[in-house]
Amino acid sequence: MPDRPSPPGMRIEAVRTRGLDDPRLPQLLVDVVTEDGRTGTGEAWWGIARSGPAAIRRMGAAAVGAGPASSPTGARLPHAPYATIMAAIDGVLAPRCIGRHAGDIEAIWSDLHDFASRYGDGGVIAMALSGIDLALWDLLGKRLDVPVNQLLGGRAHATLPAYASLPALRSREAIERECRRALDAGYRAVKLHEVHADAVRWAREALGPDAALMVDCNGHFDPREAVEFARAIEPWNVLWLEEPVRPMRDIASLARVAARAPVALAAGENEYSLADFSRLLASGALHWVQPEITKIGGLTAARRVSALTELHNVALSPHNFRLGPSLYASMHWGFASPATRWIEIPWMPAELTWPSGTPMPQVQDGRVTLSEAPGFGLRV
Q1: Which fold has domain 150-368?
Q2: Which residue of 111, 127, 288, 304 is surrounded by the most CB atoms within 10 Å?
C-alpha cells in the first residue's frame, strides 16, 4: 500500500546512528530527522561490551575511575560491540525510511519487518528495527507535544515499583556497598547478577528483611544446577530467579526447572518475536516476563507483547540495562500497560558514567514516577 501524502515537514529526511563507544557501557542511539528539522531519538541494543564484568569488578582502580572512553558522536567504529546492529540500520533499514510520513509508525514498522524478514525475524534485525521505531515514537510525541505514554492510551499506573539492577560484582564488599547505596537512594528492591549462593546471602544481610531481592543468572546453569542453585538461595527470600538456564531460550528446560525450583522464575529478555513470547508464556514456566524493548522491535512490538502478557495473566517487568532512551521508552510502555509490576533501572557503581549523559529517574520510597515532558522526555 503506498504511503499517504505527507504534510509539509513530516517527511523523513534522514536516519542517523550514533555509536557511543565505551569499554564497559556502550550505547547505540538512532535519530530520525524530518524535513522541518525535528528529531526523534531512539536506542538499539548495544551489544556485549568488550571488557565485560571484569572491568566493572575492578572499580576503584585508576582505569575504571578515569571515566568512559567515548568516541566522537556518530563515529563508525568497526570494532564496537554494536557495529553489526549499526550496519543493519544504516545499510538495510534506514534507506527504506527516507521520504516516508514520520507519523505512520505502524506502516513503517510493518514494511521494515516484512522487508528484512529474509534476514530473520529476530537478532540483529529486530534490534535495528527497535532503534528506528523508538525514534519515531519519540518524534511523534515531540511533534504533538505530549509524552509517549499518552500516544499509547495514557497511564495505567500513577507510580510503579522500581528495582536497582546491579552489574555482576562478585565481591562481598562491592555487593554490600551497592545494596546499601541503592537503599540510600530510595530503592526498596535490588537485583543481583550473581551465580553463587553466598553473594545472595551477602545482599540479603545488607538489605535487611524487608527489601525485595531478585537474582539474574544470565543463563549460567544447566537445568540440574539451576534447581540446586534455587534451593540454595531459597532461605534468603528471593522474589525471582531470572534466566537460570543456558541456552537462555531453551523453554523446555526452563519449564523443567520451574516445576522443581522453590523460587519463581523470570525470563524473556532474549526473545524477539510475538511467536517467541507466545511459546514462552504458554509454557507456564514464568511468573514475570521481561521483554527487552531494544530487541523486540521497539514500542510497536511492545504493545502486542503487552496484550499477550495480559492474555496469559503473567506480570510484565520490562527489561533494560542502559540509562538512555531505552530506559525511558520502557518506562512509558510500562506505565501504559496494566500488566506491569516492576521497572528495572540500571544501577552502576558511582564512579562509572553512562556515555549518553541521561539523568537517572527519580525514585522515592521504592517507586518511580514518569515525566510529562514531550516524547520520552530526554535530550540526548
Answers
A1: TIM Barrel (3.20.20)
A2: 127
